[in-house]
Design a protein that fits this description.
The protein is mainly beta and about 80 residues long. Helices cover about 0% and strands about 20% of the residues. The strands form 2 sheets. The chain has a 3-stranded antiparallel beta sheet, with no helix packed on it. Strand 4 and strand 5 form a beta hairpin. The mean pLDDT is about 90.
């Protein structure tokens, strides 16, 4: 199993899946580019289940731009 929740890099888009009991193992910085790894909503602190999330599933606040490297981020 890959993990219940997703974290993604705000700079390069790298993704890491995680479980509640292993959240402390998710790095603060992206191992690929050094950018910030976001794993919880900054507004309500909710985790997100999709690596393609652009809005928080709980409060609706924007987590990141809906485009990465000129390509629209689409939920699969």
């Amino acid at each position: 199993m890959l993990g219940d929740w997703a974290a993604f890099c705000l700079s390069c888009g790298a993704v890491r899946r995680w479980f509640e009991d292993s959240e402390s193992e998710v790095p603060e910085e992206c191992p690929q580019c050094g950018g910030e790894m976001l794993r919880r909503c900054r507004s309500c602190n909710a985790p997100f289940s999709s690596a393609f999330a652009v809005e928080c599933e709980e409060c609706g606040v924007q987590l990141r731009p809906a485009e990465l490297f000129g390509t629209q981020i689409r939920k699969s």
